[in-house]
Amino acid sequence: MKLSDLKPIPGSIKKRKRVGRGTGSGHGTTAGYGNKGQRSTSGGTKAKGFEGGQMPLTRRIPKRGFKNPFRKEYAIISIDDLNVFKGKDKVSVEDILQAGFVKKMKDGIKLLSGGEIDFPIKVVVHKASKKAIDKIKSLGGDVEVLI
């Protein structure tokens, strides 16, 4: 058997249906879309969520609360996570990303006060809680907040 001997299985390849090529083709005039009805004309599709004129579910259900479109979501790390950086004098955002504490940065990194550390360290993050800043400063460290 040679490469030139290979052929597709009989019946597996069909001719393309060419619609709208005159009445003699058998698929002319309406091009297979029928005579009347919503789907027969151009633009004749229903909108996503259309329920046949019934009030759609998304409009029937009551909306509650307020969704702030300008909300910022921060990736969170705690003071306890900083124990990995013992012996380092400064921890930057890149160090935190490389250590794997943050998988997706979102709008920045926020330091929270969970856990304890026992050494002074300078931390550079996008945001930090007051309690976290107080804990680090009490040990002689510093927190730099990026804007």
CATH architecture of the domain at 75-145, by name, is Ribosomal Protein L15, Chain: K, domain 2
Q: What is the 3D shape?
A: elongated
CATH class of the domain at 75-145: Alpha Beta
Read across the widest sheet, the strand sequence of neighbours is 1-3-5
Strand segment count = 6
| Gyration radius, in Å | 32 Å
What's the mean pLDDT score? 92
The proportion of residues in beta strands is: 5-15%
Q: Which percent bin holds the helix content? A: 10-25%
Gap between N and C termini, in Å?
70 Å
Q: Encode the helix/strand succession as letters.
A: HEEHEEEHE
Low-confidence stretches: none
Biggest sheet descriptor: 3 strands, parallel
Structural class from helices and strands? Answer: alpha/beta
Explained architecture:
The chain is α/β, with parallel strands linked by helices and 147 residues long. The protein has a domain at 75-145: Ribosomal Protein L15, Chain: K, domain 2, CATH 3.100.10. It has 3 helices and 6 strands. The strands form 2 sheets. It has a 3-stranded parallel beta sheet with strand order 1-3-5. A 3-stranded parallel beta sheet has the order 2-4-6. The mean pLDDT is 92.
